[in-house]
Design brief:
This protein is α/β, with parallel strands linked by helices. It is 37% helix and 26% strand.
Length: 156
């Protein structure tokens, strides 16, 4: 595998990608700065084209909608996964008590928690009986509208 991370110099990026492909490397991932740059790389046969500048701009824009978000992953135009610190209102309650899906239209897909030795553990697909603790980070899946609405509710 090879990663071509040259971005601003489109000519150098294309030439390096072509040389790497000519070497017979089976998987080539390359950075692109514009859609045209990406199309050229795809036509060369690059396995995957990434747009880190564009992707980060989208993440920052979404973080403005959900200011408490620690991380954001857009799944589509309408749905995202957001990591937020556990709101004080949630601490001490089980997922069943919180009723996130019926109340907010959101699904809690994971809880990140630090133990006494400051090691992080992640509970994926937590059960209804799992209790939210102070310091937890919650990974929530839902529509962008619902995630923004939760943020507004928690700020009020």
């Amino acid at each position: 595998m090879a990663v071509v991370s040259i971005g601003e110099n489109v000519e150098a990026s294309v030439l390096v990608a072509m040389l790497v492909l000519d070497l017979g490397i089976p998987t080539v991932v390359s950075k692109a700065v514009t859609p045209l740059h990406g199309r050229i790389l795809e036509r060369l046969g690059v396995s995957r084209v990434v747009y880190p500048d564009r992707d980060m701009a989208v993440r920052v824009a979404h973080s403005l909608d959900v200011p408490h978000a620690l991380d954001f992953i857009g799944l589509s135009r309408e749905y995202s996964i957001v990591e937020i610190p556990a709101p004080p209102e949630f601490v001490g309650h089980t997922l069943k008590e919180l009723a996130l899906r019926p109340k907010y239209g959101l699904m809690l897909i994971a809880i990140k928690r630090r133990d006494r030795q400051d090691r992080e553990t992640t509970m994926v697909a937590p059960s209804a009986d799992d209790r939210i603790e102070g310091g937890d980070v919650l990974a929530l899946l839902g529509s962008n509208d619902r995630l923004t609405a939760l943020e507004r509710i928690l700020k009020a």
